[in-house]
Amino acid sequence: MAQPLTLPSTFPDHASFDEKVRRLYDDMDIHRGRALDMESFVAAFRRMRVAFGPGVVQDLFERGDANSDRVISLSEFQRFGELFPTIVDCMYFRAKDYWTLEQQRREVDGIAQQLDTLVAALGAAQAETGKGEDLLSSSDHRLQTELQALGEVQSQELAAKDDLQQAHAETERGRATLREMLADMNRCTDREKQRGLERAEAARGVEHTQRKVHQQELAMSAAEERLRELQRLVEEQEREVEAQHHALQVQNDALKNAERASRDAADLEAEAREDSEHAGARAADAERNVAALQEAEWSHAQALRSIADDVARRMAARDTEQRTLVSHRESLRHKKHLETQAAEAVEGAKRSMALTEQHYVETESRRRTADAEEQPLLEQEVRLREKRECLETKERKLRTDFQHFTGRGRASPPRVEAIPQSAQRVTYSSYAPQEGRFM
Fold first, then answer.
1. For every residue of the chain, which 3-state class applies, written as one string?
2. Which residues have a Cβ under 8 Å from the Cβ of 122 and sit 6 or more positions away?
3. C-alpha distances in Å from residue 225, one per residue of 217, 219, 229, 240, 273
4. How much of the chain exceeds pLDDT 90, in percent?
5. Helices 85-229 & 74-83 angle (0-180, nearest 10)
6. Is the CB of residue 91 less than 8 Å from the CB of residue 77?
7. Which of 42-51, 118-127, 234-243, 246-255 has the lowest mean pLDDT?
8. What percent of the chain shows pLDDT beyond 70?
9. pTM for the full model?
């Protein structure tokens, strides 16, 4: 609630009449020149809502201006208070009411300004809360995106690991196949060497058999020659020829067998050479396959490292977004707390303003009621003062005429008659601001 404002003057309820006159005079002196001019006098009557016409107010000013210098001094205003005590008393309390209402009005204005400030602060807090919610939603969306991307990258990493394991297994199988093919090629080479040795051995057997056949042919020629020469030993020679012929057939058969063995050995050697060549080709293919598998394995390893780096980056981005999300949540919680405080302050200011406005309306209503009740008394006092002055004027005229006609000396000072009961000063000792001015 706004602090009470300092008023130009104070108006205690139980002040003496002289103090009331002095305080009212200070309040009416808007120029602070210790003299009331017509402008200040009329402004005071208008401000205190004394419903006198312009002529009445001007007449009252002239009554207060005893020396006719167009201003009313404090002493002249004190005399004016003696002439019109009800008006002065009424204006004193109306000035008090005016400044009370002015204080309440200023409090209302101050609360209204404070309320505007609080509403602006509430709007700013709501805007900040909205921005915080947008930031939180955006951060949460980015976090979900990062989590989804991280999941995809982790799936790619698992697939790459599976591919790398498969490629490594393929490489190991290729290496095993290469080792088997190299062993097979070595066995083929060994067989080829063995077949070569066997072919050489068969060739040597063919040569040995051929030498034997040649020797047998020579022996048969010698036997034939001996047969021709030695007819005597025909039977023996024929038997020997037959034996040599049989031996020749055996040697021919052996030669044929040796030649067939040599051809078989040559075929086996050619087959072994062909097997060895095929084994070498398969080994070369296996080596190329192993190299390709190793290249694929290296490529998968590179892809896995790249995916692992991407996973690390995604995880770092996820951690950053999570920290940002937590920060935004804390900021949003703080902004909502500030918004709640601002809303509570706005509601409190509205309640305070409504209460102050209610007091203002009640005070204004009481003031108007009091004004309506006081106005007849004020008018009555003016009329009674006019009647009194008129009677005093007539009395002075009668005394003057009496002295003139009787020829007596100076008369005694005129006796001041008592003011009628209806025109006596209205006191405010029983004034109660909450219940009305008059009791």
1. CCCCCCCCCCCCCCCCHHHHHHHHHHHHCCCCCCCECHHHHHHHHHHCCCCCCHHHHHHHHHHHCCCCCCCECHHHHHHHHHHCHHHHHHHHHHHHHHHHHHHHHHHHHHHHHHHHHHHHHHHHHHHHHHHHHHHHHHHHHHHHHHHHHHHHHHHHHHHHHHHHHHHHHHHHHHHHHHHHHHHHHHHHHHHHHHHHHHHHHHHHHHHHHHHHHHHHHHHHHHHHHHHHHCCCCHHHHHHHHHHHHHHHHHHHHHHHHHHHHHHHHHHHHHHHHHHHHHHHHHHHHHHHHHHHHHHHHHHHHHHHHHHHHHHHHHHHHHHHHHHHHHHHHHHHHHHHHHHHHHHHHHHHHHHHHHHHHHHHHHHHHHHHHHHHHHHHHHHHHHHHHHHHHHHHHHHHHHHHHHHHHHCCCCCCCCCCCCCCHHHCCCCCCCCECCCECCC
2. 339, 342, 343, 345, 346
3. 12, 10, 6, 12, 49
4. 8
5. 110
6. no
7. 234-243
8. 89
9. 0.46
pLDDT at 417 over 50: no
Residue 6 in this model has a pLDDT that exceeds 60: no
Q: Are 37 and 71 in contact (CB under 8 A)?
A: yes
- Asked if 188 and 275 touch (Cβ cutoff 8 Å), the reply is yes
| CA nearest neighbour of 425 among 65, 81, 52 | 81
